[in-house]
């Protein structure tokens, strides 16, 4: 069976929880599927250097912004910039199949705004979004999109 790679950053644990549940969903459906998950926060915390990936990956990005409203008064990405630097490292951007954003719908226009900004900046699609830790329906819907991307 094939291999899937997820590159993400998780600060509060919500994105990491989603990645773990998504991995279980995919591995239950596809026996022998290898899922490699890279938490950029752990790389940075452990002082490891960024590296070039040799296989396609899907990125997952929570939204942490300060200032502005995300429409006409701007915004500033905080806490998640290291994921952008990883994607920009070597030719990783060429291997990114797309990004999945997460956030809190209470923030209106800023909901998953960082993922949308990454898609525009790097030229890959926003594959989907989910709120906070995500629901089982989100796992199924996003899992099926990833299956299609990897042709499972």
Mean pLDDT level: 89
Distance between the termini: 9 Å
Find the structural class using helix and strand composition. alpha/beta
What's the architecture in CATH terms? 3-Layer(aba) Sandwich
CATH superfamily membership: Flavodoxin domain
Number of helices: 6
What is the CA-based Rg, rounded? 15 Å
Describe the structure concisely for a colleague.
With 152 residues, the chain is an alpha/beta fold. It contains six helices and seven strands.
Present the secondary structure layout.
Blueprint: E1 3-8, H1 14-29, E2 34-39, H2 40-45, E3 57-62, E4 65-66, E5 76-77, H3 81-88, H4 92-95, E6 96-103, H5 113-122, E7 126-131, H6 136-149
Parallel strand pairs: 1-2, 1-3, 3-6, 6-7
Antiparallel strand pairs: 4-5
Can you walk me through this structure?
With 152 residues, the protein is α/β, with parallel strands linked by helices. The chain has a single domain, classed as Flavodoxin domain (Rossmann fold, 3-Layer(aba) Sandwich). The protein is built from six helices and seven strands, in the order E-H-E-H-E-E-E-H-H-E-H-E-H. The strands form two sheets. Strands 2-1-3-6-7 form a five-stranded parallel β-sheet, sandwiched between helices. Strands 4-5 form a two-stranded antiparallel sheet. Helix 1 packs across helix 6 (136-149). The longest helix has 16 residues, at 14-29. The radius of gyration is 15 Å and the shape is globular. It starts with a strand and ends with a helix. The mean pLDDT is 89. InterPro entries: Flavodoxin/NO_synth, Flavoprotein-like_sf, RNR_NrdI. GO terms for molecular function: FMN binding; oxidoreductase activity, acting on NAD(P)H. This is Putative NrdI-like protein. Residues 4-152 form the Flavodoxin-like domain.
């Amino acid at each position: 069976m094939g291999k899937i790679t997820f590159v993400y950053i998780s600060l509060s644990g919500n994105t990491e929880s989603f990645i773990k549940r998504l991995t279980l969903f995919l591995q239950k459906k596809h026996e022998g599927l290898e899922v490699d998950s890279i938490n950029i926060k752990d790389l940075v915390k452990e002082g490891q250097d960024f590296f070039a990936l040799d296989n396609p990956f899907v990125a997952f990005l929570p939204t942490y912004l300060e200032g502005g409203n995300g429409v006409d008064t701007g915004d500033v990405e905080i806490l998640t910039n290291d994921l952008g630097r990883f994607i920009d490292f070597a030719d990783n951007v060429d291997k990114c199949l797309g990004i999945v954003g997460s956030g809190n719908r209470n923030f209106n226009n800023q909901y998953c705004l960082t993922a949308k900004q990454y898609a525009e900046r790097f030229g890959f699609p926003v594959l989907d979004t989910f709120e906070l830790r995500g629901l089982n329906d989100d796992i199924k819907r996003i899992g099926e999109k990833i299956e299609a991307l990897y042709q499972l």
